[in-house]
Amino acid sequence: MKEVTMKIVILDTGCANLASVAYAIRRLGHEPIISLDANVVRSADKLFLPGVGTATAAMAQLEQRQLIPLINSLSQPVLGICLGMQLLADISAEGDNVPLLKLINAPVEKMVTKGLPLPHMGWNQVQAQEGHPLFRHIADNARFYFVHSYALPVSEYTIAQTEYGNMFSSAVAKDNFFGVQFHPERSGAAGAQLLKNFLEM
């Protein structure tokens, strides 16, 4: 019997980490498609929404590429990575209160770090919600790689949190939308396991 191949699509947001996300997925034995074609995106089994840079530029790219209504209409599992997670929220304090995708009812705020430098860059512990499938087979307080100055506060949508001056959401979930503030594609074995978990959801 022929094995059914999972269709994995990385939304072509025009950001710089598309290639590294694709490489991390290939290392798990899958061949992702990078696309902004609505038919390709809608037919995906799993979707990735990567993002680096500013919320203003990222939302402008999504609007220019006509991806906003498409993303809002998706029913399959979607994983936002770094800025991609922030884009799922309501509004970002970055720039002039940038409106976002409004899929998760939470704001993106500038981090209050109590004297620690911004951006928050490097490895930090992630305290995941016990039993959440996204963190299956990942050790408690595993370390992941972060690069950011803005974050979602801890809320009802938080499935993992991290401390950097204050606690912030390092992973969120609502319905079929998931987001991680860290870069799983740069986070070694723990990051690879998280990507594997998402693909198996």
Summarize the structure in short.
The protein is α/β, with parallel strands linked by helices. The protein has one domain (8-199): Rossmann fold (3-Layer(aba) Sandwich).
Give the helix/strand layout.
Layout: E1 8-11, H1 18-27, E2 33-35, H2 38-42, E3 46-51, H3 55-64, H4 68-72, E4 78-82, H5 83-86, E5 91-92, E6 98-99, E7 107-110, E8 120-125, E9 127-128, E10 143-148, E11 150-151, E12 158-164, E13 166-174, E14 177-180, H6 188-199
Domain Glutamine amidotransferase: 10-199
Subcellular location: Cytoplasm
Subunit structure: Heterodimer of HisH and HisF.
* Spans of at least 5 consecutive residues with low confidence: none
CATH domain class name:
Alpha Beta
Question: Fraction of residues in helices?
Answer: 10-25%
Helices, by number, come to 6
Percent of residues in beta strands = 25-35%
Q: Strand order of the main beta sheet, please?
A: 2-1-3-4-14-13-12-9
How would you name the CATH homologous superfamily?
Answer: Class I glutamine amidotransferase (GATase) domain
GO molecular function, one term: lyase activity
InterPro entries: Class_I_gatase-like, GATASE, Imidazole-glycPsynth_HisH
Pathway: Amino-acid biosynthesis; L-histidine biosynthesis; L-histidine from 5-phospho-alpha-D-ribose 1-diphosphate: step 5/9
Subunit structure: Heterodimer of HisH and HisF.
